[in-house]
Amino acid sequence: MKAVRVNEYGGPEVMKIEDIAQPAPASDEVLVEVYASGVNPVDWVIRSGANESLRSFLTLPMTLGWDAAGVVVEAGSEVTYLKPGDQVYGVPNFPGDGSYAEYCVGKATQFAIKPRSLDFTQAAGVPLAALTAWTGIFAHGDLQPGQRILIQGASGGVGSFAVQFAKSKGAYVIGMASADNVNYVKQLGADEVIDYKTQQFESVLRDIDVVLEASPTRNNRERVKAVAVLKEGGTFVSVNTDFPFNDELMEAGKAKKVKVALAANQPQQEWLKEIAELIDAGKVQVLINKVFPLEQVADAHRASETWHVKGRLVLNIKKISITA
Ligand SMILES: NC(=O)c1ccc[n+]([C@@H]2O[C@H](COP(=O)([O-])OP(=O)(O)OC[C@H]3O[C@@H](n4cnc5c(N)ncnc54)[C@H](OP(=O)(O)O)[C@@H]3O)[C@@H](O)[C@H]2O)c1
Question: Are residues 141 and 254 in the same domain?
Answer without folding.
Answer: yes
